[in-house]
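Retro notes
What went well: the complex prediction finally ran end to end.
Inputs used:
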Amino acid sequence: MLPVSLDELRTKYQAERDRRIRPDGSAQYRDVAGEFGFYADDPHADPDLTREPLHDTVDVVVIGGGLGGLLAGARLRQAGVNSIRVVEKGGDFGGTWYWNRYPGIHCDIESYVYMPLLDELGYVPEWKYAPGEEIRRHARAIGEHFDLYRDACFQTAVTELRWDSDAAEWIVSTDRGDRMRARYVVMSNGTLDRPKLPGIPGIDTFRGHTFHTSRWDYGYTGGDANGNLAGLAGKRVALIGTGATAIQVVPHLGRDARHLYVFQRTPSTVDYRANRPTDAEWAATLRQGWQRGRMENFLGLVSGEQVDKDLVRDAWTGSARLLRKITAGGDSLTSEERERVEELLDFEKMNEIRARVDSIVEDQETAELLKPWYRYACKRPTFSDEYLQTFNRPNVTLVDTADFGGVERVTENALVVGDREYEVDCIIFATGFQVAMSDMMTGRLPVFGRDGKHLLQHWSRGPRTLHGFYSDGFPNLLTMGALQNAASVNYAHILDEQATHIAAVVAEAGKRGARWVEPSAEAVDAWAAALGENAEELYRFHLECTPGYYNNEGKPHPRRGFAKGATAFHALLRDWRENGMDDVLVMR
Ligand code: NDP
């Protein structure tokens, strides 16, 4: 039973959304550059690293050494590619898991479906939800297993890509003076990799200590990813943001700081977690190929498909299970009827989330502020058995900023919201990352294709790709990530499918003796048209959502991706691979 009517809830959602919409949208954030550049500095890199510039030739340069780059390396290696060079800005493999080492860091997707290549490495994670450190260790293990360290360049940023038509090679320039050549370039340089700061007036005047969660300063806080932040014992700490990162950090800050102020603009949905160590008996039953089946099972469940068995059985799949139960046999439903059923179930789920707040948070006023009023998928759902409980501590204060568009002002020693000033020693920004802003998309990494054509000019009216991977006029450039393709919450799975596809294309080109692969302009146009047809429903959903990075702060991009879902997209790619590739992909 819903406590209020659908209409009342809709009105409430709309009102909560409207009071958070800012006219400046995404422009409210500032880049961590110039005087704010220190927020992005790498605390883990070797400051004294030097090496001779490289001028050699490899088969493939992979830009980015996160899970995507590692998967590309691994799948290419399996496809028989010999010389693979990963070029990575950080000091080691790991990507997200290299940069983010904040206290409490865990992956919120089950480790058995998230951590890549478990079968290949013969590894079973230690926990159902892995701590960041275990994933980072695993990333390094993938690098070792597939011999990717041999040719890797760390602490190196690619500064230009230029296609040499005569040689049919890319010339790859870097900030270390390299000018290497590669037959193929795989771009896997991340979608949520550049930290962003809110453009709060006065932010530059603060005299206390400050850092972003993705560059955690353990020198200041003491402790490690397990907590024990002894350096905060006498400190008043402000945490700005209450997204998926903050949910994991807050319990540690609450435990160890003298006083913690959590500055919230929109509360997250916080569902139960129930993390537990891996059952050794279960692990002993796993047979070769087990992970693939489990990944497919999870993807199917969270995509709302009819799947017989739920292997993961957690809060992600639980919500999806409910939806399937109610809509089972509902193929006869019209799309309006289906949307309505989904809305009802969504309200029910959100009521459960709101009731959970009431059952945990003792102070009623605080509990009200912690209740999210939007549809479940509007923001990244979060999971914790400690976050809400932290607000019962006497040294923790929740400061709601929703009516002020966020924290209003920062002074030399305080944060200002409404008529209150909160004096603090330290400000920690859990304010997230620039979205889909890989260096290629911002222009920081200029890419020149056939006849010196600039990629961003070619894309001036929007990205032009086939299946998100390759663009006409840019031979042998293969892009991974979230561009004109399908996504899902288990992003590592998505990246694995992309890596497998890329490796198959490169292998096929090798087999045919093709010097380059490139889609025709017609194929690229057709893909853009297909995406446009599918994306309308998702666009409408995001338009009504509370602002956040999922919907470009309330102004969703109309044509983002393949709206039929990841399973359908993967099937489409598989079909395409099995049906000869050459009908749209020009190989010469
Ligand atoms: P988010 O972008 O999700 O959250 C940023 C937070 O900062 C929001 O709560 C936002 O409020 C708040 N904020 C921004 N500006 C202001 C302001 N001026 N005043 C007050 N508050 C402000 O970043 P996260 O780092 O939390 O998460 C980013 C993504 O990283 C996640 O969505 C997820 O995809 C991934 N992640 C994944 C994890 C995993 O386990 N797999 C764990 C952690 C993160 P508002 O919502 O109102 O904009």
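What we learned: Residues 20, 107-109, 192, 198, 200, 240-246, 263, 265-266, 380, 401, 406-407, 430-433, 548-549 surround NDP (CB under 6 Å).
What to try next: split runs per interface for comparison.
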